[in-house]
TrEMBL record:
This is Na+/H+ antiporter NhaC. It comes from the Bacteria. GO terms for molecular function: antiporter activity. The chain crosses the membrane at residues 12-31, 37-54, 74-104, 110-128, 135-165, 194-213, 234-253, 259-277, 314-332, 352-369, 407-426, 432-456. It is a multi-pass membrane protein. Its main location: membrane. PANTHER family: MALATE-2H(+)/NA(+)-LACTATE ANTIPORTER, NA(+)_H(+) ANTIPORTER NHAC. InterPro entries: Na/H_antiport_NhaC, Na/H_Antiport_NhaC-like_C, NhaC_Na-H+_Antiporter. Belongs to the NhaC Na(+)/H(+) (TC 2.A.35) antiporter family. The keyword Thylakoid does not apply. GO terms for cellular component: plasma membrane. The gene is nhaC. Keywords: Antiport, Cell membrane, Membrane, Transmembrane, Transmembrane helix, Transport.
Length: 465
């Protein structure tokens, strides 16, 4: 997508008008009409095609721009499919059921939502993947929350907050590496500098989650114990079922590629499932990688929690991601995004305006294209020179890229992360957004740093107040 050439040049005002109408239409379709996001996005694509034809752009060029846009998401699509296979294989091997069993043990004290936030943060930091953390640990906590009658929306908000704190701060995370490398900052200098906004966001979120945690007297622990007993009776709780998780963590620490790591975790789980599953059912195991694992315990609630995963479960996510990225390709071809970015970068004499514009750019790309990698790359390339002219160290920009780019993606219903999370957690994006405190606080704190100058590092050259 980045290599596309725009067919026309637009004024910033016209580009802004196109975006406002586009987002208003998508928002109306999803919120007011309660349509599946595919329909409003497809309507947006159709509107942009008509707009392009009115601008005398050939249909063949518009088609190619959509193809180029969709190509940018093929890497994410493959990861989606591998995670789908991972989840189903980990169900069969008892990995996720074992994690659910131990997650049940964690809720013997107070502060349930705070515990969810802390655990997912630690796991996210350890493996550097927000999506894997959410798909495995997050699913376990959603199971606990549903069992005890707690709010699924708040639980999902805690999962998303913790998982993306890890994604943002882990040296194993691809977005962390991408943000630092895009603006040529040392990786660990970048992580250290992010602590100025991350640590306050963490503690504020922790206090909020702790204060919202329900009283234990409201929880039905008898039901919880029943589910634990049923899991044990299903022969799904074993220490060796956690071997795939250990393999995943080790490969992530060694910075092995995501696809190889997920593939190894799936293969290990399939091998272990030969021990867990009765021999007469071995022939069904390869099929679950596509259709997903189906639990037949007889306990309706437990079966609904465990019956998930498979490549097929990712089709909703994959189709929406490809549509959103195709729309992004059209926005590039029509010159809408280039005009907006140029307009943002056109008047950047003051540091607060510079920080605000770069943050707005990262947020805007997330909403327009739904892809966090492009929000980092486009914003970094656009504003790198302006930060240098302002006498600001580039690590200030790399922090903005994460605070307003990486952690905002899961809050966009049609984004790569938003679609995936709503699918695996079973909670819609709009439901968990108000409770994804860490993701909401991060851009606010990075803007506060820009407007106050606190924690901003100068290079000593051409510094502007």
């Amino acid at each position: 997508m980045l290599n596309q050439s725009q067919s026309i040049k637009l004024r910033t005002s016209e580009a802004a008008a196109v975006i406002i109408l586009l987002l208003a239409g998508i928002g109306y379709g999803m919120i007011k009409l309660e349509l599946m996001p595919h329909i409003p996005v497809m309507t947006g694509i159709g509107s942009l095609i008509i707009y392009g034809l009115l601008k005398k752009i050939k249909m063949s060029e518009l088609e190619q721009s959509m193809i180029d846009g969709a190509k940018a998401g093929l890497g994410a699509v493959m990861i989606f499919f591998f995670i789908g296979m991972l989840v189903s294989s980990w169900m069969a091997a008892g990995t996720i059921p074992t994690l659910i069993y131990f997650a049940f043990e964690l809720v013997t004290g107070k502060w349930f939502y705070a515990i969810v936030f802390i655990v997912t943060s630690v796991i996210g930091l350890s493996i550097g993947s927000s999506l894997t953390t959410s798909a495995v640990i997050g699913v376990a906590f959603i199971a606990v929350s549903e069992t005890l009658g707690f709010s699924l929306a708040i639980t999902a908000g805690a999962v998303v907050s913790g998982a993306f704190l890890g994604d943002k701060m882990s040296p194993l995370s691809d977005t962390t590496v991408l943000a630092s490398s895009t603006v040529k900052v040392d990786l660990f200098d970048h992580i250290k500098n992010m602590s100025w906004t991350t640590v306050p966001a963490f503690f504020i979120s922790l206090i909020l989650f702790a204060s919202m945690s329900p009283e234990l007297s409201s929880a039905d622990f008898t039901k919880l114990q029943t589910l634990q007993n049923t899991l044990a009776e299903m022969n799904l709780i074993h220490w060796y079922s956690l071997i795939p998780l250990a393999i995943l963590a080790i490969l992530a620490l060694k910075k092995v590629s995501s696809i190889l790591t997920l593939g190894a975790g799936t293969l290990a789980a399939m091998i272990i499932s030969l021990v867990v599953v009765q021999q007469k059912d071995w022939g069904t195991l390869p099929g679950i990688l596509y259709t997903g694992y189906v639990s037949e315990s007889g306990n309706e609630q437990l079966d609904s929690l465990l019956s998930r995963g498979g490549m097929e479960s990712m089709f909703f996510s994959v189709s929406l991601v490809l549509l959103a990225l195709s729309m992004g390709g059209l926005l590039f071809k029509l010159g809408v995004l280039p005009a907006l970015l140029q307009g943002l970068a056109g008047s950047l004499e003051k540091v607060p305006v510079l920080i605000g514009s770069s943050a707005l750019s990262a947020i805007g790309v997330n909403f327009l294209i739904g892809e966090q990698y492009l929000s980092i790359i486009l914003t970094g390339n656009t504003f790198e020179g302006h930060f240098e002219k302002a006498g600001l160290h580039p690590k200030n920009l790399s922090r903005v890229l994460e605070d307003a780019g990486t952690v905002l993606n899961p809050l966009v219903p049609w984004s790569v992360c938003g679609v995936f999370l709503s699918s695996v957690l079973g909670v819609s994006t709009l439901e968990y957004v108000p409770f994804a405190f860490f993701c909401l606080l991060s851009p606010v704190l990075t803007l506060a740093a820009g407007f106050t100058g606190i924690t901003l590092s100068k290079t000593g050259k051409n510094a502007v107040a």
